[in-house]
Task: structure prediction
Amino acid sequence: MESIPQSDSNTPLVSRYARGAFWSLTGTAVNRLSTFLGAVIIARFLGQTGYGELAMIQSTIGLFGTFGGLGLGMTATKYVAEFKSQDPDRTGRIIGFTYLASWTVGGILACICFYGAPWFASHTLNAPHMAGELRLASLLLFVSTIFGPQTGILAGFQAFRTLAEVNFCQALLGLPLTALLVWWGGLRGVIIALILTSLMGAAVSTFFLSRKYRFYGIKLNFLRSFKEKIIIWEFSFPFFLSGMIHMAVIWAANAILANQLKGYAELGLFNVSMQFYYMVIMASSILASVSVPILSEFFGKKDTGLYARFLNVQLMLVWNLAIALGCVVLALYPWLLQIFGDKYQAAGSVLPLTICMAITVVALNILGQAFYTSNRVWLGFLIGLMNCVIFMTAVKYLVPIYGARGLALAYLIGYSLEIIISIFLLQIILYKLDIKQLITTSFLGSILINGCALYLVFNSYQWFLLPVLLGVFVFIIFYTINSNLGIFDNLLFNSLGVRLIRR
Result:
């Protein structure tokens, strides 16, 4: 169980960062390992087409869930981090408003999904037989609208150990449930397992949140929560629009692929390759998740100097780590695909592109934090909107020709252009980024791994790539550690008046 901290404001930054990173690592690793093993079991039981159908259902529920969430999870993280100590009353109103809004909209959308399932299955998914599964998934949608805000609130409290414990409980229940229920009920069994696992997470989160409320003296105020409705326009609404459009284009792209000849089999291959995508972003997302409340706290204290330096460290570390992990997966992917069975070996032409997608997404997540933690969410929304237009244009032309490979390539094109524009705007408009160091490793490393990926998409795996990619991995790890020790010294220790003693 997590012990309640003495005081976040009095806890040294380096201690909070290290503690948050450790528990985020633990929770994310447990969650990712459980999800990956569950994906292997599901893929082997359902086959390519069944696994593709599951991906389409999850994409549909994700789209509805974005509407139901209204961007309130990230809103809760930002404002709870800013006001939990300074203004407990306002924090209670914000949390109350978050719950009311997500429950109301989530309930309405769950009903729409339930009653509209036959129409969606027939007219958009090209699979009338999936109506029953889609109706069952509407319950998963409603449970997710309850669990989503809780995760954001816990992150705002910087309760990363609690989040790790929630992940552990879900993994402990979810993996055996998934194995049992997919054997018993196929696709419907998987959906039931997801519902039960989400309910477990919601129950455990509720218990831990009650302790946090007592410690900070926060009382949830639902009656007066509408006083905080202004945050919907200032922060939640643009964040919600960004997430909604993003999920809508993902759903539309999956639907376009599903409606091709053997589309669900192709979607199954894409879904398998995405499991390795999540492996690459897993470790990098640990540092990203820890930085949101810290950046929000710096912004609330108007410490723009420390904010900018911390953002630089985060971007370089996370991007370089993603490139290093991507090199390992790309070097070993022919053997990694064997875990899913021989029927998924064709995913080898898709997986290199999804690895490159992961690297760009990891960097974009950090850049996105700069936009929304500094209250420039509308600017981030416009950049994301541009990416969606480019992505859907690429999908229109590439998916009918290349199938799953075309979908992955369209993602890579859109994300690559978005990252260039985001860095340019942050450099000129917001905060100075260390462009020289980014070019030294991150840009060059991304270009190298993208080149290898494009080669592998249209050619068979070559043995010379193994030592090359592993060599790049070793170089980036050592370079990143060596070049950032001094930055961490100045940023995390000198800001506290403490020198880092290195042997």
User: Anything to note?
Assistant: DSSP finds 13 helices and no strands in the chain. The chain has a mean pLDDT of 79.
